[in-house]
Design goal:
The chain is of the alpha+beta class. Helices cover 32% and strands 15% of the residues. Strands 1, 2, 3, 6 and 7 form a 5-stranded antiparallel beta sheet that branches. A hairpin with a 2-residue loop joins strand 1 and strand 2. The radius of gyration is 26 Å and the shape is extended. The relative contact order is 0.11.
């Protein structure tokens, strides 16, 4: 009977270990991605963590500077107590989104005072017709010519501003609204597992079938 050793040849094992060392050295030598500038709607880490939700705002006292928010590694976040692992992955994902200029509602607002932005309806000529859009003018400015269009909200009907987390100003007829920072405004909701999730679905379905047949012990 011929038996085969399960051990790798020493030369192959040495090459493998050297390759891993080189990979770690390469990762450590790579430059860190650029740290984006805060925006008027997201001026600090606490606001960022509040917006992305999933109760990450409770970690705001541990991440106190903008630079640390965008430079801490997953290992460092774990050492700070950001648990479970999916919360760290979610934070790193949103961090990358923000770095690339991809925001949730309100992220593009430029005129914000104490976390609150005012929005108004503006009429924009389009050929022979007029299109109504939502803009974010500076506080106290009635002229809307230079105000930028706000993403994520729109005008319904005659001139009512609608969108998630939008608060209409009373006696404005719906043409003036405010948007303020709230917990979970940018949160991406987690899905729920069906039949135990992908890994256990086959087993769970078989158990359900057996139960239906009355064969489960």
């Amino acid at each position: 009977m011929i038996t085969r050793s399960s051990k790798l040849p020493r030369t192959l094992l040495s090459s493998f270990q050297l390759s891993r060392q080189c990979t770690r050295a390469l990762h450590s030598s790579l430059p860190l991605p650029p740290i984006p500038q805060p925006t008027p709607f997201v001026p600090d880490p606490a606001t960022f963590l509040t917006l992305i939700g999933r109760q990450l705002s409770k970690h705001a006292p541990k991440i106190t500077t903008w630079d640390s928010l965008f430079s801490l590694t997953s290992t460092q976040l774990r050492e700070l107590g950001v648990e479970p692992a999916r919360s760290r992955r979610y934070l790193l994902w949103w961090r990358d989104q923000f770095r690339r200029g991809i925001y949730g509602i309100g992220g593009d607002l430029q005129n914000v005072v104490d976390g609150v932005a005012e929005m108004r309806v503006k009429e924009v000529p389009v050929g022979e017709t007029v299109r109504k859009v939502v803009v974010n003018p500076p506080p106290g400015v009635e002229e809307l010519a230079q105000a930028k269009v706000v993403q994520g909200v729109h005008v319904r009907g005659v001139g009512t501003i609608v969108g998630s987390y939008v608060e209409l100003v009373k006696e404005s007829g719906g043409s003036v609204a405010r948007l303020k920072v709230q917990e979970g405004m940018w949160e991406v909701r987690r899905g729920h597992k069906v039949h135990g999730g992908e890994r256990r679905r086959k087993y769970v379905l078989s158990q359900i079938a057996k139960k239906a047949r009355g064969t489960v012990k």
